[in-house]
Amino acid sequence: MRSEIVREFVAMIEAEAHSTPSPGEFEMAYQARVAMDRIRFAIKATEINREQSEPLHDARMQLLDALERLEAAERRFQDRWRGPNRFKLQSADLGAGRSTNGTGRAAS
Length: 108
Hints:
Mean pLDDT: 75
Radius of gyration: 23 Å
Number of strands: 0
Largest sheet: none
Strand content: under 5%
Distance between the termini: 37 Å
Low-confidence stretches: 89-108
Number of helices: 4
Helix content: over 70%
Order of helices and strands: HHHH
Shape: rod-shaped
């Protein structure tokens, strides 16, 4: 009985550890943000040019594709970071100890 409880406890801890992003993933998310900002700047710079040559148009399309891919990866990271259980826990924590007017309840 005791070993079963310990196994369940360890499984819960492992599940939580695997559900949150690692420091490396946070670094990748930051670098993706930087890259997205630079790609947006490059797209705007190509739009300023009055001559719409074929190579410039192709370059803009490649940049837009890269930007969309990075944004999709960032959305997946955000979804993983928020996670289904994280929102439920935060909502429950925010509601605990609060009355309807937003002030903390007095201990009884």
